[in-house]
């Protein structure tokens, strides 16, 4: 990374961690200062703390992964995995992060017995990044879809949204670190870069195309065998 990239990375880390830390501090302060708080409110605040801690942990892990990608020393420990071992944790995590207003997520094709040769942690990171991107840039309340399709020697994972779409001229640029179509959007600007990097490290690839009727289809592939 260049000096500018390191400064961007540090600035992004500080900005993105500030929000969940503010939630954790606010909820913890209220719990400590209000010993007679109703049980339902106490549980709600503890859930806020838990969700914020998970968000911080995921962000830090993603930043560490991006640093390894840039250094060219990312470690991949591939094994045979059923696709449900990748899809299920991502869907559950997205629903937990949404709290009381979960985004509708439809999963198609995650059938028992369908397997890939991949690193579970890295594959989950890649799919989580694409789902988070779809949620962030889709209209409120619109459904996000995850489609899993077996091909001859690989499995194709697709995340479909109803956002504004990606202009053809930007479809490679958005996979560069810190690149954003919407300059005012929140987020680290690293998710798509991470997703492509980790799946390529496992022998696959990632990209985006337009979705009929509006929106985007972000996809990546993983091998079905070693």
Q: Topology of this structure?
A:
Elements: H1 3-33, H2 39-71, E1 79-82, H3 84-98, E2 105-108, E3 115-118, H4 120-136, E4 144-150, E5 154-160, H5 191-201, E6 206-210, E7 216-223
Parallel strand pairs: 2-4
Antiparallel strand pairs: 1-3, 4-5, 5-7, 6-7
Helix pairs in contact: 1-2, 2-5, 3-4, 4-5
Give a description of the structure.
A hairpin with a 3-residue loop joins strand 4 and strand 5. Helix 3 (84-98) crosses helix 4 and helix 4 (120-136) runs antiparallel to helix 5 (191-201). The strands form two sheets. A five-stranded mixed sheet has the order 2-4-5-7-6. The chain has a two-stranded antiparallel sheet with strand order 1-3. It has helices at 3-33, 39-71, 84-98, 120-136, 191-201; strands at 79-82, 105-108, 115-118, 144-150, 154-160, 206-210, 216-223. With 226 residues, the chain is an alpha+beta fold.
Shape: globular
Overall mean pLDDT: 88
Structural class, judged by helices and strands? alpha+beta
Distance between the termini: 32 Å
Major sheet summary line: 5 strands, mixed
Q: Enumerate the spans where pLDDT stays under 50 for 5 or more consecutive residues.
A: none
- For this structure, the quaternary state is single chain
Portion in beta strands? 15-25%
Quick one: how many beta strands? 7
Helix content: 40-55%
Could you give the order of the helices and strands?
Answer: HHEHEEHEEHEE
The Cα radius of gyration reads 18 Å
| Strand order in space, largest sheet | 2-4-5-7-6
The number of helical runs is 5
